[in-house]
Design brief:
This is SDR family oxidoreductase. Belongs to the short-chain dehydrogenases/reductases (SDR) family. Pfam families: adh_short. Keywords: Oxidoreductase. By secondary structure, this protein is α/β, with parallel strands linked by helices. It has one domain: NAD(P)-binding Rossmann-like Domain (Rossmann fold, 3-Layer(aba) Sandwich). 43% of the residues lie in helices and 16% in strands. The protein is built from six helices and seven strands, in the order βαβαβαβαβαβαβ. The protein has a seven-stranded parallel β-sheet, with helices on both faces. The longest helix is centred in the middle third of the chain and has 27 residues. The radius of gyration is 17 Å and the shape is globular.
Amino acid sequence: MIVVTGGTKGIGKAIIHKFAQAGHAVAVCARNEQDLMALKTEVESTYGIKVYAQPADLSKKEEAMKFIDFVLQTGEEVDILVNNTGVFVPGAIHEEEDGVLEMVMQTNLYSAYYLSRGFIKGMKERQEGHIFNIASVAGIMAYPNGGTYAISKHAMMGLSKCLREELKPHNIKVTSIMPGATYTASWDGVELPEDRFSKPEDVADVVYASYILSDRSCVEEVVIRPQLGDL
């Protein structure tokens, strides 16, 4: 089974469709229950696989832990974890409201930390598994008006590197995916042509291609940018 956080839109939804098409059962969470149920119906009816859906706000530790328990109680083996939940709050570090850093870090970093810890035990017991952290080009560069987001994604890259080293002996792979501007709801209201962005489906294709490699190879990091470069 594949577990995808923040799976009702954009990159997360594209990844779910890609893996469901290949026959993988899915466990997914998001904050909006209506969107979750619509996704569950759509994917189950299209691909004939089982979708386990649970509303969760992963900026809250207790909800992250409840989602982990929900997945473990399905009885399915978690083969793939995609830490995709994320939030972007524009602004400068020295000007943003108090509490923004804490909220962004809890959503973008801590949720990935909790879920990785929650599912690694089963992966170690089976000596197989794959963790994908959907980071960002902001994890390898800084830019104006996105400082706190970049801090969180730099930290996520650190988490990925540490997990990669820890899990090598257990045949568990860890891959960081670093998309640039991708056409998702995060860019709603921006007056740019759609073809100036990468497609969520392209990111999903890269995730799947990284997953199906032999046990002898691990894709550690992938940067995906629009053909014309960063915005």
